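#lab-general

N.A. 3:47 PM
ok so I finally got the sequence cleaned up, no stray characters, all 76 residues accounted for. can someone with queue access submit it? mine expired

B.Y. 3:52 PM
send it over

N.A. 3:53 PM
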Amino acid sequence: MDLDLNLQAYLVQHPSATFCVRVTGDSMQNAGIFSGDVMVVDRALEPKNNTIVLAVLDGEFTVKRIQKGQSAFFKA
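B.Y. 4:20 PM
back already:
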């Protein structure tokens, strides 16, 4: 069987705002995100409460779960 699979059609809603990053570190293992995983990031999407985001903190990229309405904005 010859089958073409276009991952972009499944994973990318906004091509000009979407990129991939490779994860390093283990702070999000409880969310099923492991060091070496590749994340698809869409900058056009508005972060919602309890979603996982790629953020810049102190000049470095980090992956965290967003928790709006708390004194700390991110949860490890």
